[in-house]
Amino acid sequence: MTDTSTARAGRRAALVMAGVGLFWIAATAIGGWLGLDNRTRALFDLIALAGFIWALWLTYQLWRARRNDED
Fold first, then answer.
1. What is the full DSSP assignment across 26-69?
2. What single DSSP character describes residue 23?
3. How far is Cα 31 from Cα 5, in angstroms, rounded to an integer?
4. Among 2, 10, 23, 31, which is disulfide-ready with 36 (CB 3.0 to 4.6 Å)?
């Protein structure tokens, strides 16, 4: 993995984390403002959880790729 692709993968993981965080904050605020029921708000929480798990997976892949490059 080259330095450019490593940097690109790191940026992608960071953008996913930031985007999911902003989505979660916005969904929580808008859900409270609109008075959505707890079931709908829980759905947004689950979507955010899936996004964070995906970001964790991207970070893990980046870590493994960098570790393999050191060897």
1. HHHHHHHHHT--HHHHHHHHHHHHHHHHHHHHHHHHHHHHHHHH
2. H
3. 38
4. 31
